[in-house]
Specification:
The protein is mainly alpha-helical and about 150 residues long. The chain has one domain. The protein has eight helices and no strands. Helix 3 runs antiparallel to helix 4. The longest helix has 16 residues. The chain is globular. The two termini are about 15 Å apart.
Length: about 150
């Protein structure tokens, strides 16, 4: 399960490296990232979305994911596992999701920041305030937390 999230972390780190001027572009960056996730979100069940949101809001997301998945029957575990594996598309530039995130990277990647964590948190806050971007906020928040655990 860590493999898809490692691709996610790499994609987020690459796509959200923006300079201090990017702080002014946080709403625009958040909207672009949210748009990238809109298609993939359709492929996730409400149970998986709820699981990701719960994990993203916990101080130990990996533990929550493991504990909650173990509670499920084998069929549901496999279904959720397949959905989570699709997050690996973030690191695949040949996938629609990978191309979209690469586009975000190119659009904002000319500028670099020393503190990607602060920018990432600002983007998460912006996503949480945007209607229809809750799934994206959960994925980003989860990715940031897991990156901080490394």
């Amino acid at each position: 399960m860590r493999k898809p999230f490692s691709f996610f972390i790499i994609a987020i780190a690459l796509s959200l490296v923006a300079c201090k001027s990017a702080d002014n572009k946080v709403p625009e960056i958040a909207a672009d990232v949210c748009n990238c996730f809109s298609d993939i979100e359709k492929n996730f069940s409400k149970e998986t979305k709820a699981l990701l949101a719960k994990a993203a809001n916990d101080s130990n997301p990996q533990k929550v994911l493991k504990e909650e998945i173990v509670k499920l029957d084998q069929e549901d575990q496999m279904a959720i596992g397949q959905e989570l594996m699709s997050l690996g598309e973030l690191g695949d530039e040949k996938s629609d999701m990978g191309r979209c995130m690469k586009g975000v990277e190119k659009k904002y990647g000319n500028n670099f920041t020393r503190d990607k964590k602060i920018l990432g948190n600002k983007i998460v806050q912006e996503l949480e305030s945007k209607n229809g971007c809750g799934f994206t906020a959960s994925i980003m928040k989860l990715g940031l937390k897991m990156e901080n655990k490394k």
